[in-house]
Amino acid sequence: MKMMKITKIFASLLFATTLVGANTIVTVNGTEITQQDVYKGLMNATKGGFNQVPPEKQAKLGQQFLQELIAKELIFGDAKKTGVLKSKKFKEEYKKVQDDIKKQLAIKVWQENLHESIKVSNKDLKSYYDKNKEEFYEKESVHARHVLLKTKAEANAVIKELKSLKGDKLKTKFIEVAKAKSIGPSGPRGGDLSYFARGRMFPAFNDAAFSMKVGEVSKEPVQTQAGFHVIYIEDKKSKKILGFTEVKSFIEKRLKAEKFKSVMQTKMQELEKKATIK
């Protein structure tokens, strides 16, 4: 019970501060468990999506994973003491794991070397771009901020508060109001929603944002399923075709991947011919 309490204390401290440092959270029989150990494990467990998990769930997951790491150290320590590492069964299983890892790693490096050997000429890249320009349209987008409120009256009060301001003063005040009053997750960022294309937001929000001018605040509250929004348009980007230099690396990755499949297939056919397969 004492260990569980210590675990929760360290986990709470961990998720109240930072997850990416190498600071030691707890030491188990001389072995340190760091913030980085926990963070890496959580990122793997959530397939890289841990930062998108709500804060309250992050803390719970962190506590659980830290407890698992502590349990592993306790069991591993006891395994060493009781001679498991010297047993015949352990050595046999360990050899199998080593052989499997050796094979997997060799295959991975072999494939990486083959992939790196593939070259795509600048001529081929430019040819693909010229023939497929329709793939590289950048849709019209807006950079908006918003203040999300529960009631229409609250939204109207914010609009009234901002009505007499223009330019930088309006933007500064809008950010200040968003941080203080917005109930949306973007509130702490001054209501910043960054750039988004048509169709990415609620229909009513989308229609209002794309009909507004840069530097303008919505004259009426915009109602969606989330509540009432006061919108500020920070910037707009028109629809355009991206230039060759902007998409060159993307095209190279695509053509290289396609070429790799072909080279891989040919290589496998060559290996099969040379091999003895019964």
User: What is the helix/strand order?
Assistant: HEEHHHHEEHHEHEEEH
Q: What are the segments in which pLDDT stays under 50 over at least 5 consecutive residues? A: 5-20
Our measurement of the CA-to-CA distance between the termini, rounded to an integer number of angstroms, reads: 59 Å
What form results from the Cα inertia axes? flat
CATH class of the largest domain: Alpha Beta
Derived structural class: alpha+beta
Beta-strand share of residues: 15-25%
Task: Kindly give the count of domains.
Answer: 3
| Rounded mean pLDDT score | 89
Helix content: 55-70%
Rg estimate, integer Å? 28 Å
CATH topology name of the largest domain: Chitinase A, domain 3
> How many helical elements?
9
Number of strands: 8
- Describe the sheet with the most strands: 4 strands, antiparallel
The assigned CATH architecture of the largest domain is: Roll
Major beta sheet, strand line-up? 5-4-7-6
Description:
The chain is α+β, with helices and mostly antiparallel strands and 278 residues long. It contains 9 helices and 8 strands. The protein has 3 domains: 2-86, no CATH class; 118-134 and 242-274; 140-238, Chitinase A, domain 3. The protein has helices at 2-16, 35-45, 55-81, 88-117, 122-131, 152-162, 167-181, 203-211, 244-274, and strands spanning 24-28, 31-34, 137-138, 141-149, 192-197, 222-224, 227-237, 240-241. Strand 1 and strand 2 (31-34) form a beta hairpin. Helix 1 (2-16) packs across helix 3 (55-81), helix 2 crosses helix 3 and helix 5 packs across helix 9 (244-274).
